[in-house]
Structures are given as structure tokens and as C-alpha cells.
Task: inverse folding
């Protein structure tokens, strides 16, 4: 898949997710069911920061998100938002533009000779990270289903 189609897919996936989440309360965003480690907000933040980490931070480029988010939503971190509403708003505002920034930076040649995860080039890495993101969207949907069961 070429970069334009991959970014379009990513943006559509993220847009649909944002529509699902737009009316959630802070309690719903921070809900962690028994047996789970993370909540909807953490998964959403994780979706935002993983590409920033792999395409920017690891390669010595300045990411398009605050370091705070990278530290608080990377693999191995746990939900600890101090202002859930503010973080949710900021993450939502960054999800689509960061996909555009990735495309623009790619077009500028920032990722020429890019390699990650051993031998994956930029497009292969983007496809891999999009699949990873899809897994977290699935987790968010599972959390939404659990919330809906509780509401009934």
C-alpha cells in the first residue's frame, strides 16, 4: 500500500474511533474493569504516541506531541491522567493532525533510509503500527461493551 492510502486508512480508522468516544464521560474514559490494566483514555493515548515514538523519538526527530504524552502512554505505562477531560481533549485534537504530519514529513524526505524493527522500511513500519493500533481499537471496543453491560 502506498503512503497516501495508508495515511487515509489511518485517518479514517481514527475518525471513526473518535466518533464512538465523543460523548463519553470522564468516568467512562477512566473505567478499568477487573482483570484489565488499562482504560479507554490510555488506549487512545497509546494509539497517539506509538507512531510518534517509533518514527520520531527513536530516530532523533522532534515528535509532534508533548513529551508528557509519550512518557504517560508508552508501552509499560499505566493510566494515571491527572486531568482526564483535558488529556482526552488534547489527544483527540492530535490524532488526525499527527497522521498528516507523518505524511508531510515523509514527503519532505525525513524518513529516507528509514529502518525499524530490524529491517522494516517506513511503509512496512507504518503498516505494522496500523495493525498494532487496530488491536488497541479492538480493546477500546471491548471496554465500551463492558461499560454498556454495566449500564443495563
Result:
Amino acid at each position: 500500500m502506498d503512503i497516501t492510502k495508508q495515511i487515509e486508512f489511518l485517518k479514517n480508522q481514527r475518525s471513526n474511533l473518535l466518533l464512538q468516544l465523543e460523548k463519553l464521560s470522564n468516568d467512562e474514559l477512566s473505567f478499568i474493569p477487573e482483570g484489565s490494566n488499562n482504560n479507554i483514555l490510555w488506549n487512545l493515548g497509546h494509539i497517539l504516541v506509538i507512531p510518534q515514538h517509533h518514527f520520531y523519538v527513536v530516530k532523533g526527530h522532534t515528535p509532534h506531541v508533548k513529551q508528557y504524552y509519550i512518557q504517560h502512554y508508552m508501552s509499560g505505562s499505566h493510566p494515571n491522567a491527572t486531568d482526564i477531560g483535558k488529556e482526552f481533549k488534547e489527544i483527540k485534537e492530535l490524532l488526525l493532525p499527527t497522521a498528516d504530519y507523518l505524511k508531510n514529513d515523509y514527503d519532505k524526505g525525513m524518513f529516507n533510509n528509514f529502518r525499524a524493527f530490524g529491517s522494516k522500511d517506513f511503509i512496512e513500519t507504518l503498516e505494522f503500527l496500523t495493525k498494532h493500533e487496530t488491536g488497541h481499537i479492538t480493546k477500546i471496543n471491548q471496554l465500551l461493551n463492558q461499560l454498556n453491560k454495566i449500564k443495563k
